[in-house]
Structures are given as C-alpha cells and as structure tokens.
Amino acid sequence: MTRLPDLTWRPAYAYLPGQTERHPETLFDEIKNACAGCHYCEFRETATFEYAYIFLREGFYWESHEVFEVLWMACPDRSAEKTLVQGLIQLANMHLKQRMGLQKAAMRLRAMAEALWIEAFAHQNGALYGFKKEDLEHLMQNNA
Question: What span, in angstroms and rounded, lies between the C-alpha atoms of 6 and 50?
Fold first, then answer.
C-alpha cells in the first residue's frame, strides 16, 4: 500500500465549481482507499474519515464531500452511520454553496442536513462516530 500523506497535507486550494480549476481526478485516491477493508463501524478511526472531517473543518468543502462519499457508499443502507455521513456531506455542500453566494441552495441543504442529523440520532443513546446530537449547530454555524 502506498503511504498516505500525513494529516498535515492539504490540497493547494479549495475547489469552487465554476470558479477554480478542478483538482486532478486521482488526487484523493489514496485517502479514499485508506478505509478499504475496514468495517463501517470502525470508519471513524480511518485516515479517510479524519481527512474528510479535517477538510470540512478547514473550509475544503468540495474535497470533504468527495472523501466522505466513499464512506457513505460503504455504509449499510438505512444505518445510522450512513445517515450521519450523508448529513456531513450535506453540511459540506451547505458551506460550499454559502461560499459561492448561493444562499437559497445553502438554506435547502441546511434543512436536509438537519433532517438527516435528527434521523441519524433518532435511535442512538450516545455518540455516533464521535459526534453527539447537539454538535450539529456548531458544525453549521462555525464553518465546521
């Protein structure tokens, strides 16, 4: 297996559709593949999840979506984990649309993220991938 860049690595810029050049198609392949062979319950411990969440927190919203999508596709349908990751993807999309000045789209995505977050925690008694139900507002308001 190829060695992943350490967790301090970032893309040269945050991609903004229609405004900046798209990253090379393979730029995130090693990061996306870091979760291969892991059970979905262990995704939070992978470099894939860590990078996706770092990208979300640091304003690399499109990049966060790209990486979270791999985890989302690997989670079982109708699982709380899949729903939570889908909510994180919508949060990244919301922040991206805000940055692009598309407020109507951002508000629609905010509502979707809220609904997914509520659904993910509907039958949870504790944390899910390290998140608690009350973390949503912070993720929405504080640019993650």
Answer: 11
